[in-house]
Amino acid sequence: MNNTASRPASECDLEPPSQQGRYPQLLRGLLNPTAYPHRTGNIRVVETHISWVLLTGDYAYKIKKPVDLEFVDFTTLVRRKYFCEEELRLNRRLAPTIYMEVVTIGGSLAAPKVGVEPAIEYAVKMRQFPEAATLDNQLQAGTVTATGIRELAEGIASFHQSAPVANAGQQFGNPATISAPVLATFRQLTECLQDSSNLAKLGKLSAWNRAQLKTMMPVLIGRKTHGRIRECHGDLHLANLVQLNNRIIPFDCLEFDPELRWIDVMSEVAFLAMDLMLRNHTELAFEFLNRYLECTGDYKGLQVLRFYLVYRCLVRAKVAALVRQQGVRGCRGDSDLVARHLSLAVSIITPPGQTRLLITHGFSGSGKTWLTDHLKSRMPAIRLRSDLERRRLHGLSGSADSHSGVAGGIYREAYSGDTYRHLLAMAAISLSAGFDTIVDASFLQRRYRRMFRDLARGLEVQFTILDCQAPFAVLQQRIKNRLVRGNDASEANLAVLDQQLATADPLDSNDEKGLVSINVGGSIDWDVIARQIQTA
């Protein structure tokens, strides 16, 4: 990969090899509490393939290794200072309470002093947090909730929407910039791997990737035109998230190469989704993905999601291979991380069983959204909500009151047609990308049910109607309760319910094909629902 874009203007010559070997001595000196201007606890070093982190108790100090791994070059003091400053700048966007400042390390190799000039090294000073708080450990401990993941998705969506957008004159999002890191990762993995099984998987993935780059490149490039190439976090996996005070905070942004940070936002989303899938938490991956899409409306990003899921598998496989090659001490993870990432990537490109389109049917208050909220992560599936998309089409936020009357405002019949056609287009994208798809809308008019049945037939996917039922008194009470809470995307009131009852087209013989009727109120046996959907 070309690193010239990340090279500071005042670049120096590389330090001689004799100087590069000094770091073990410096680290030994930094294990002495007298090296710090504050009290310390038991000091220890955590090592990655590109850095050392000294944990002192209240504070952590991150020093960059003087390495050149093709994708990262920290071989001079000038470069290390520059990238320390970049790390601080970038991480304060998302974790300002953790990242404090860039500090000098002066004195001598044998007796270094933090905060002393002239600098013999630089470090990023951070507030230290318990290792157990990182999300990979929290997930293993069972303390990661669906609510926390959804809130994280909302935060990442907000971050992406406010992040700088790559302009036409920048190389980010161009064909060479998209393909270069992918091809480099394949090359680096090929050089690292020895196991014949892993090499066979890599060969299969390489062939698939070449075909994707050839056929999907216009779509990938089009993402830039639509403002989806932005200055992202760049390294959003579970070990780079920390749960503090019931809030998940991203840290450790990718600072060393802008080309790996100025990326498609869907590449960023894919990284975390992939890591959750790897750890057998696909349900949380789809909680994150669905909430992110609800916040951003970027359902067209599903066209490139599978490509980026595979790429992110390969990136983590490469890191695992490099760590093993370097013999990094104390590195978390098991010995078959490379194989596990490659196996997941192969499963992602392997066509699943027949894809399914599900639509809901029911009056306001019948439990459609509650039902699909549970189904979307259990199946898993992409869910589209008419209440949210209708507002988005009219420039409103998901919780905004449109002040529309019954069958008026944004609920006029013409606008309802626009909403269903938009849902149809987004569902077609999701299904064509190979994702089971749920459309949460009332579907009380026969013509709208027919539109989606025709879509399923044209794409040769299974079609199911989830008929949500509840007694009239229950519908009324749910609507009243919802209006009192005031936190739901639906604006339906009792007048809307009366209007629906008066104008709905009853289900007919065509609707009976693939129909699953559900009384959404009592206890739900999800295994039974799953079997009904599969056999409908």
For the record, what is the CATH homologous superfamily label of the largest domain? Answer: Aminoglycoside phosphotransferase (APH), C-terminal lobe
Percent of residues in helices: 40-55%
Q: Between the first and last Cα atoms, what is the distance in angstroms?
A: 51 Å
Rg computed from alpha carbons, rounded to a whole number of angstroms: 26 Å
Based on secondary structure, the structural category is alpha/beta
Number of domains: 3
Residue windows where pLDDT falls under 50 for at least 5 positions: 1-20, 329-334
Percent strand equals 5-15%
The name of the CATH architecture of the largest domain is Alpha-Beta Complex
CATH uppermost class of the largest domain: Alpha Beta
CATH fold description of the largest domain: Aminoglycoside 3'-phosphotransferase, Chain: A, domain 2
> How do the strands line up in the largest sheet?
1-2-3-6-4-5
Q: How many strands?
A: 15
Average predicted confidence as pLDDT: 89
Descriptive overview:
The protein is of the alpha/beta class and 536 residues long. The protein folds into three domains: 125 residues, no CATH class; 215 residues, Aminoglycoside phosphotransferase (APH), C-terminal lobe (Aminoglycoside 3'-phosphotransferase, Chain: A, domain 2, Alpha-Beta Complex); 180 residues, Rossmann fold, CATH 3.40.50.300. It is built from 19 helices and 15 strands. The chain has a six-stranded antiparallel sheet, sandwiched between helices. A hairpin with a 2-residue loop joins strand 8 and strand 9. The two termini are 51 Å apart. The N terminus is likely disordered.
